[in-house]
Amino acid sequence: MSTRAEDAAARVSLWKGRAVSISILSGGLTNENYLVECDGRRYVMRLPGQSTELLSIDRANEVFNTKAAATTGIGPQVLEHVAGADVMVLEFIPGTTMSARALQSDRMAARMAQSFHRLHAAPRFLQDFDMFRLVEEYLRIVDEHGVTIPSDYREWLPRVAAIERAVSVAALPQAPCHNDLLCENFIDDGTALRIVDYELSGNNDPCFDLGNTAQEAEFDQDMRAALCRAYFGTVDRRQLARMNLFALMSDVGWTLWGAIQARISAVDYDFHGYYTGRWERALEVLRSDRPQRWMDEAAQPSN
After folding, report:
1. CA distances from 233 to 71, 121, 167, 178, 229 (A)
2. Domain end: 91, 111, 133, which one?
3. Between 20 and 30 A from 231 (CA), which of 83, 145, 163, 242?
């Protein structure tokens, strides 16, 4: 166990003076997550990763939003936050961690939609999230820190601007959104699909969450339509098109996230393979006729 984890645990008042067992929780690509056991209870202790401010992660925003999401019963309870150390102690959610394969059914799409409805009705989050502005911020960080990105990335920025214009036509009112819906951030507690990890959360168009999770769960068009139907009550063609465009933007934006991580992260993970894979998948779509078709559908006037 790292000295950092032991030092962090020593600052937590929740179990002060009692014996604790600390073990690493796998899966985190940005932070250090630990399972802490004390007097028969389990907790999650979360420590921020190295230089994560370069990923535009605001820890005050994360704590505020995690607490807000917890009021819906979808996010985990924040049991303690150690001010000045950015140590969060969270409710341990017993259940099954999801995967792309586990989420690919109409039944799971309906359960995801139920969780999204609850999350999107949370008290307003502290800050807003906009993937288009985040791309601009990441590119600034790339230039300042000499981060290597795909050589043709900037050639596609005019298309990114066109996508932003298209998704703005039928924009939904902002709501508290997660914005980083890796399949592993869903935990099935037997009753609901709980959602964890709010470091990139912010008020956003709810359709971004739908498109982002569709991309992370590798949904085909039938599954994307099922998620759209479950959330909106019908397959809304404009919102489905917007979901598809936001799914594409997930790859476009997280390509830069991965490139920055490859430069700064101390986590033992192939971030180069991550961001090149993301960009290759984005390019396969960008070079097709699909984005233009989706932009046309997204920009259609309502009936």
Report:
1. 25, 17, 20, 21, 5
2. 91
3. 163
Same domain, 133 and 239: yes
Q: Hey, what amino acid is at 35?
A: L
Residue entry with tokens 């008020």: 203
* 3-state percent breakdown (helix, strand, coil) of the chain, nearest 5: 50, 15, 35
Task: List, in order, residues 6 or more apart from 119 with CB less than 8 Å away.
Answer: 69, 72, 74, 75, 176, 177, 178, 195, 209
Q: Indicate the residue among 34, 59, 91 that finishes a domain.
A: 91
Question: What pLDDT, in 10s, does the model give residues 13-40?
Answer: 999 989 999 998 876 666 788 999 999 9
Amino acid of residue 122: A
- Non-local (6+) Cβ contacts of 221 within 8 A are none
What is the rounded distance in angstroms from the CA atom of residue 85 to the CA atom of residue 81?
Answer: 8
Residues 6+ apart with CB under 8 A from 50: 264, 265, 266
Residues 153 and 253 in one domain: yes
Q: Write out the H or E segment, with its range, that includes residue 46.
A: strand 41-47
Residues 6+ apart with CB under 8 A from 72: 118, 119, 121, 122
Tally of domains in the chain: 2
Q: How far apart are CA 147 and CA 140, in angstroms?
A: 10
Together in a domain, 85 and 103: no
Q: Are residues 21 and 63 in the same domain?
A: yes
153 CB-near residues (< 8 Å, 6+ apart)? 255, 256, 279
Which DSSP state fits 25? P
- pLDDT tens column, 107-164: 999 999 999 999 999 999 999 999 999 999 999 999 999 999 999 999 999 999 999 9
In single-letter form, the type of residue at position 280 comes to E
In-domain check, residue 212: yes
Residues 131 and 209 in one domain: yes
CA angle 119, 132, 181 (to 5 degrees): 35
171 and 30 within one domain: no
